[in-house]
Amino acid sequence: MKGLILEATWEPKKGYEVTDWEKKTGKAVTGSSVWRNPNLAVKEKKDPEIGPSDVRIEIKACGVCGSDIHFYETDDQGYILYPGLTRFPCIIGHEFAGRVAECGKAVADLKNGDPVTVEEMIWCGYCNPCRNGFPNHCINLEELGFTVDGAFAEQIAVGAKYCWKVDKILERFGDEKGYEVAALSEPSSVAYNGMFERAGGFRPGAFVAVFGTGPIGLAAVGLAAAGGAGKIVAFEVSEARRALASKVGAEHVYDPKDTAAHEALLEHSDGEGFDFMVEAAGAPHLTIPEMEKALAINGKIVQIGRAAQKVPMYLEAFQVRRGQVFGAQGHSGHATFPNVVRLVASGRLDLSPIITARFGLDEAKQAIGRCTERCDGKIMVKP
Ligand SMILES: [Zn+2]
Ligand SMILES: [Zn+2]
Q1: Who is most buried in 67, 177, 320, 359, counting CB within 10 A?
Q2: 53-81 residue pLDDT tens
């Protein structure tokens, strides 16, 4: 089969201390400090083989993610920009849906032909965080498209326990569009996990602000609408993405370079502030200071965007306004994937307008290149 393989050289930056665990596993904890001179190419690879608890899936659609861009772009020394857990070479791509083509002997809940989407996080189920109910914090984590073969490919083999059926999504959207929409389940589940699992959600009628409307922020806007927000305001620097935010449910969308976010939020709430604010910009040093100036009493902030930097916070604001900040990562557990699938199948969460371009598998590298322009919503690769 064909797949988009990322190869890179293991060459830790000066000052990066490689741990025994990294040596043993071949996984870099901070990829951007270890992997140099990445090379992406569609190549032939042996068809994936399944174990007794696995399924083989024919991939129908796989979205390009910000992290894929960070494998493609490098710093001035030629290191990848992605700062997370990685082991190469591997096939990248992790936001996907497809059709089950083969089931292992022990697989009971899936059969050939079932349409599924799949968690990206291959949590072990045995470590203490997993056993305690926190699979998003698994210490033996493997990640599809980061440490093991992912889904910019014709096929993938994964454990059946990471798959969720999406037949109801296909019933609503049809086969062609249905698989693309189902492939949005992974980023949507990241937003859902942050908003509803970690931060505990908001009450219907609450005022919700979303900072940054890349694909995760767009999903947050859609989820805020589906969850009954009384008003949704978004901030985004890209004009094209501002237009998409309006399409999926934001009533007011601003360029934060032109408008001070806290002023807009105070105006839209008659001075009371916003109840629930989502950081999906990955620029908390800029967004959190705005949020804390527009925090309603009992307000919540959830950090979903990634940024390896310290943030100035005025904690007095959180005391006086009874505020809370939540850190969120991942998408597994807590009924998150199945609830997202239900919302999409019901039509209450329709993110289909955010899919703005499609490429074949042979053009997967070009698809990622196009993403570096950061003017699209979600780009799909369709093998
Ligand atoms: Zn992603
Ligand atoms: Zn675990």
Answers
A1: 67
A2: 999 999 999 999 989 999 989 999 999 99
